[in-house]
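Lab meeting notes turned into a lecture example. A postdoc, R.K., suggested we walk through two folding results consecutively so the class can see how the record format repeats. The first protein's sequence and structure tokens come next.
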Amino acid sequence: MDPIVEVVALILGFTGWVMVGVALPNRYWKVSTVDGNVITTSTIYENLWMSCATDSTGVHNCREFPSLLALNGYIQASRALMIVSIVMGTFGLVGALIGIQCSKAVGENYVLKGRIAGTAGVFFILQGLCTMVSVSWYAFNITQDFFDPFYPGIRYEIGEGLYIGWCSGVLAIAGGACLTCSCRVAREEKYNLPYQARGTVYSGPAPTRSVVASTYGRNAYV
């Protein structure tokens, strides 16, 4: 596989991994809507860990969620998926640094490098999928409450933290797909070696028995 493609895939995976780390502590996963309000004195915004409020003077006040078990199930699941995403991205980043062709690790064994790069690509894909599921599930609950006419609580809109998460998932999946292809290409190169006979290189398929018999005669076989 082209080393440039591997480097681009590594950059995409690394960028996606960094953006997961940015999205996870971001406070603006959902922001209270101003739709239908003539005068807005305060804005409430939340993420997976805390709820914050700011008034018209710019004063911020945040409090962490007091109990894990008292949270909604989708918030707990989103927390777990985001943490798993970071772990998968870490494994993928380490594997990609070892498996790319320009790396000095593992020596000149390019077949092994391709397999390591392919495994790293799988980790990046899992990272992207975990991130996409987490932020999409969170966004689904926001939109469901927003359009529910009987919802009695505060209506929220999608915040910037979810957009960062979506971008992170797309980059991680794209980088992982490129690295996974490197494993397949390396395996094909292993089994498509040129046929050698008597010091000559024959790039086509191996000669059949009849061709060899006509060349060397019947006494060549017992």
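The second example is placed directly after the first for contrast:
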Amino acid sequence: MTHDPVNTWSGEFGDEYTQRCSPEEFRIRARTRLWSRWLDAFGTREPQTICEVGCNLGLNQRALQRLSDAELFAVEPNDSARDTLIKDGVLPQSHIRAGRGEDLPFDDSSMELVFTNGVLIHVHPDNLGQVADEMYRVSKRFILVSEYFNPDPVELVYRGMTDHLWKRDFAGFFLDRFKDLEVVADGFSWKRTSNLDNPTWALMEKRPA
């Protein structure tokens, strides 16, 4: 059986989510503080090409533009969110692609950093390996995941729906699946300062062959 929460996010439910999460300044400032911390973890190896899987209205891109000269790319299944990103001048049309984590529209090793922020939690466990494989394929060097944590996989009801939200050790999933990944830095994003719901994050790097 194929599980596809992406259909939910690309339709009316996703449109409503986009309206709730408008790119107000307080949200962008909170995300900027978060990215200041994450970029520090790279040291002198700050990536120059960055791709987000599931960007919605681009809070991360808007924050990164204040902090980095990196070339930014993103994949987003919701049409209205992509249109807003282009209209607001956040990303050029060529850099924001219609797509999904299971089939990223980018070449192998084409991005120095591939990341998610609150997206893997909405990927059905049956599809998580495929999304991880695609992120690994597109990443030239770094993978960053910021997601809800639980030591063991557990499903939660999300706005009255099942099959739409899971917690687990997502970074551990990547480390177990790809033996050449090592952790560069990790941490916890407290809701009071990050405007996120207390996720953990981990920056991982591909070790040279």
